[in-house]
Amino acid sequence: xxxxxxxxxxxxxxxxxxxxxxxxxxxxxxxxxxxxxxxxxxxxxxxxxxxxxxxxxxxxxxxxxxxxxxxxxxxxxxxxx
Length: 81
Description:
By secondary structure, this protein is an all-beta fold. The chain contains no helices and 5 strands. It has a single domain, classed as CATH 2.40.50.140. Helices cover 0% and strands 44% of the residues. It has a 5-stranded mixed barrel with strand order 1-2-3-5-4. A hairpin with a 3-residue loop joins strand 1 (6-16) and strand 2. The termini are far apart.
């Protein structure tokens, strides 16, 4: 996504196939959100009600990319000491 992109917070409504999700913005707008590449492994545990950050472009407000926060979503095999 280019330099015109902006970031918003959304809430996941439901999980769809192939790493896509239905998300809702705070103003009630619903859109399709997706995870790209290897980040799909990180978001396998994402479920309805979770809050995520999306990156949107002004050209298509019906689709957004979920941004990954590495320290927030850790694999269950990693233990915190």
